[in-house]
Amino acid sequence: MHLLHPRNVLAAQVTAWAQKHRIPTVYTWLGPFHDAYLTPDRERPFEKPPTYERLVFTRRALVRQAVLEQRWREVLRNYRLHWPLAAATALLPCSEFEAEVMRRFGLTQPQAMVPLWIDTPFIQTVPVRPPALQSPRPWLLFVGQLTIRKGYDLVVQALPAIVAAWPAASLLVVSGINQQQRDALMRLATRMGVQEHITLLGYLSDEELINLYRASDVLLFPTRYEGFGLPLLEAMAAECPLVSTDIPVVREIVRDGENGILVPYGDVAALARAAMAVVGDEPLRQRLVRGGQATVRERYREDDLVGRVEELYGRVVRSSA
Q1: 108 near 130, Cβ under 8 Å?
Q2: What is the pLDDT of residue 320?
Q3: Which residues are within 8 A (CB) of 154 and not within 5 positions of it... i.e. 6 or more apart?
Q4: Does the structure show a pLDDT above 80 at 177?
């Protein structure tokens, strides 16, 4: 059995059942800093030290932590979320950063790092249909939840400088419909004086999103934290140059100047400069597109990565026989 997600409330029951039936488990702790027990601020997890000491993996630690915190129900939930990770037969982190966090947890099971991937052949065979948008160009694309962690606020704050250089620039925002989050974005845009340059697109189908990637001039992805960052691979596969944040996991995917541009964490001015550089420098744009295509072709081939997952499955099964 393969478990994923760091807040899987069913993992304890599933793992106990698997142990009872002598079924080995593999765990991918996708995005460890999504864990509220590990991260004091899940929206800005790199701005405060992680609290490794709070995680509860054993019954002995459960009793000790409950005495310290005097919140038995909360500590029990902590234990039930983390015990399955310690009980797993093997670990399958999706990044080198996640693998290092697993080691910081003190976990010693066999582990193999296998990154996530996307269906690149599907993306590349979707029929080309230019988006029917009236927004003037250049098109700056943002894809993701409208949360501080995803950095939408940084994009909006960078927009005035971009508009000063490119007065017709449009920020296209692809995000699920959450009216409260949309209102917060537009309030910030109004304060920055760029509300007329923003188009909120809500949810798009896969085909619509792929064609929007293809048509956009640059993807702006100034995330403050990612468990992996699939939009980066989607943009590369769809030939959209990108700008993202120089943080763990992202820098495992993006090589600065080769398949994207990396900017310092939270640096609005650097984000604006990078966006303008990509929009205004066609040779740079083409270099990044070629680099992105090479990345998904060479480093994120589905067949290769599926084979590595299956290899770990085989080792786990053989060792548990």
Answers
A1: no
A2: 87
A3: 222, 266, 268, 271
A4: no
Query: What would the mean pLDDT of 90-101 be, rounded to a whole number?
Result: 96
Q: The pTM is what?
A: 0.94
pLDDT digits (tens, 9 = 90+) for 207-216: 999 999 999 9
Q: How far apart are CA 259 and CA 243, in angstroms?
A: 9
- Taken in order 65, 69, 70, 72, is the CA torsion positive or negative? negative
Better-predicted residue by pLDDT, 178 or 99:
99
Query: Domain ranges in the chain?
Result: 2-117+302-320, 120-298
Q: Sorting pLDDT into bands at 50, 70 and 90, what band is 5?
A: confident
| 15 Cβ contact list (under 8 Å, min separation 6) | 3, 25, 83, 84, 87, 88
Closest by CA to 96, choosing from 32, 24, 26, is 32
Which phi and psi (to 5°) does residue 297 adopt? -75, -35
- Residue-wise pLDDT for 147-173, tens only, equals 999 999 999 999 999 999 999 999 999
Distances (CA, A) of 20 to 59, 107, 317: 18, 22, 16
What distance in Å separates the CA atoms of residue 103 and residue 97, rounded to the nearest whole number?
A: 10
Integer CA distances (angstroms), 269 to 11, 55, 140, 264, in order:
43, 37, 16, 10
Q: 120-298: CATH homologous superfamily?
A: Glycogen Phosphorylase B; (3.40.50.2000)
Query: Bridge-partner residues for 261, per DSSP?
Result: 243
Looking from the CA of 127 toward its CB, the CA atoms found within 13 Å total 1
Rounded CA-CA distance 230/306 in Å is 16
d(CA 210, CA 124): 9
